[in-house]
Amino acid sequence: MRSKKGKAIVLRDEIIELEYNPEDEAGKKQTKVTKRLRLRKVCYQDEQNRYDVFLTNCFEITAEEVAFLCKKRWGIELLVKKMKTNYNCNAVNDSLMELWRNILIFLAVKRSSLRFRYAPLR
Question: Do 56 and 92 sit in the same domain of this protein?
Fold first, then answer.
């Protein structure tokens, strides 16, 4: 099932159950103990026909909300990576004030570059 161009759609919403044998503190597999892991797999196609698969342990929200939140989280992860690379910011070691300063600088630069990129020629 493929979506029409311009319309986002959930293609699948499945529950996956995995069984595994955990390791003890020494790293040895405990063959007498079996644990079960229950996950939710959401397959999603966005407005530009890009296909994404999300795994989560959250069953309380809709598949659309899973896709939305995962995509937003990924955007934040990319923002932090770009800040660390371009602005020499290490969010783990910097003070909270320095982190916010770098976020604001990044957003200001991003906004001004978008504004000037599409400015009409006179």
Answer: no
49: left (phi over 0), alpha (psi -120 to 50) or beta: left
Is position 80 within any domain? Answer: no
Structure tokens at 80: 């932090």
Q: What digits encode the pLDDT tens for the residues 88-111?
A: 665 455 566 677 777 777 776 666
pTM score, two decimals? 0.62
Where b means 16+ CB within 10 Å and e means fewer, 19-39 reads: eeeeeeeeeeeeeeeeeeeee
**In whole numbers, what is the pLDDT of the chain averaged over residues?**
78
Question: Is 3 found in the same domain as 43?
Answer: yes
Number of domains, the chain? 2
